[in-house]
Amino acid sequence: MTKEEERALPIGVFDSGIGGLTVAREIMRQMPNEKIVYFGDTARVPYGSKSRDTVLKYSQQIVRFLLEQKVKAIAVACNTASAYALPVIEKDCPVPVIGVIRPGARTAVDATRNGRIGVIGTEATVESGTYPEFIHGIAPMAQVLSRACPLFVPLVEEGLWEDPVTDEIARRYLAELMDEEIDTLILGCTHYPLIRETIGRVVGDEVTLVNPAYETARTLQELLTERGLLADHHPALGEVTQYQFFVSDMAEKFRRFANSIIPYGILSAKVINIEKY
Length: 277
Hints:
By secondary structure, the chain is of the alpha/beta class.
């Protein structure tokens, strides 16, 4: 395969469900020439309450599917999978792999002024300790305060982005972090950027919100550029479907949600049997 052919290959993106669409959206915004193959594991969501071994098994199955689609790189657009499966996937995968945790941790360290960084995420992400581990690897003296926010994901998936219920839950979750005087908060789940305005109102203007979806796309762009893999022209009209979406269940619900956050018109999502991988 020539370098030009390799550059024209798609980027693989996967998540436990729909939250990773925030990463796909940032890739579309920041790298408009790139093709994307997205997989959402909607039959087995959520990952946040599952064991490390189960998340690793699911992630390996999805990586095998994406490699079958001839992707040139893979973005693990799921904090839980990044925490539990990324080291194994990176070691075994023949293409570059990037998770969402390292880029977010690095940005938070750059942003903090008082060294007090908050992290919110699923129970699995918080229990893994991966964000504090990466942050302390860069800034050993930083204080990292974590809080699991399990109700945020179902609230987002129900479309309750601007709702009094979401406001109240956010106030309850975030109160103890605010008491600790954090000045930076990592949105450590790819669903959370969709309620960024609510979270921002609760924590106030003095707290910098870090969106790992944005930072992951930026880091991916740097990686592809370094390796000479960045697409250098937009796919020709009719040449290929630029964005392809696959799910393990509930394709129509996925399509409706995707169309609410991605401004390109998702015409279809194809259901595949991920268990065969």
